[in-house]
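**Tokenised fold:**
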Amino acid sequence: MPVRLHPHLSVRFNMVDADEIAKLCYERFKQLPRRGKPEPGREWTLLAAALKLSRCVHSDKVDKEVVSLGTGTKCIGQTAMSPSGDVLNDSHAEVIARRGCIRYLTSELHRAVSGEESSVFCRGDERGKWKLQPGVSFIFFTSHTPCGDASIIPMADIQSQPCPAVTSAKSPEGSDKGRDLKRKAEAPSEERNTKVSRLEEQETAETSTSEEPSLSLSTKTPEETFSQNPAGLLPQVSDIHRTGAKCVPGGHADPLHPGVGYHCAGMLRVKPGRGETTLSLSCSDKLARWGALGFQGALLSHYLQEALYFSTVVVGKCPYSQEVMQRALITRCSRVSNLPAGFSVCAPELLQSSLEFPFSQAQTELQHQDGKGRISPCGAAISWCNVPEQPLDVTANGYKHGVTKKALGTVKARSLLCKLELFHSFLSLVSATDPAARPDSLRGADLQTYWDYKKASQAHQQAWQQLHSQAFPLWPRSDRNLLLFR
């Protein structure tokens, strides 16, 4: 199946200015309360956001609104995961922003099924189904290239590296920096990146997620990839930015050769942890998956006539390669075929802004002063989304920020973005829907657990099976034993 443009994505052309998008996201972050933000000059973080674009019916004007924003650089290890779905496993900014967007979409669907006006959805052609309003689309912003395959970027000049080139096989694997480390040739040690911050006093097994698993569609090394330049369009490559993310077990492994031969490109990767394996795939891999399955998830697919795709992905100022982004987010899934109705492989437009996030690692290093302590990633993750109740959610180590150990395992400790809370929000949506107006997939079956509802979303499951078999055969199922909660 060739990569095609989804009908709703056509709204993107001639309306997206990368700097404008970055500025909107940075301003939205600036307006948030101080809680959970990095300490200026000492801590850094990454930022991502989902934005809604609405084209006015009788003009070319396009309204742009940040509907979900997230910060964070960490994820928990395998042993810290909860079978009850009450722990937030992956707190990378991209994942936080996408989960916040699901909260936003659930809220808008709740308005729609309750007979209220929704700025996002209108009735679809099938019973119980909804589709995007005409002229509405979504774009995704991230302040840094996604961790994993998209961060294996060529360095045209050895002097362009922020740190000395890594020529040894002993590169850091558990840095909290995630993607930034990759870009910096991963020269900073794990000790530097796993520095305990004020927000990490709870000694839970949170692991930093600099990268996630990479797809096993290609076994080329960056040296082979970047040497294919018959037109001489690329400068000579002497090294690459490196990632701490490891290839998914069972497939090809990184050769770890000095210079550009250090990594295999195009591989599925899992994010590293501080001494413990994680089951969280890299953000590069997750963005690639959203390009085929949509970003709405299995549960909301019950209500949607078509999957939802990001029309554009904008990256802030940072080490960047258009070719690598194309490979990581688009090419790896480009040959996936036989997807069910409502799903397609949709290639987003890829743009970069010239504006850098003020709390990036690079900016934090510039602002750092002697005596302020060592630079470290912020231990908190912030989620904000445009919902009427509890729009702000600040977490650390997979739980609500500030909770005591005594409260762990209780409602007070749960993030609003964990699987269990998102499932409860979905059940509230189902309850608010008139039984006669429910989608066919929610009729008649004995649906009780999260897994029951996920399996009942048959089109999404079929699309996942096609993607899994054709593009991601080694994709680890981190939720395999975590789906039976109610």
Q: What stands out?
A: The chain has twelve helices and 19 strands.
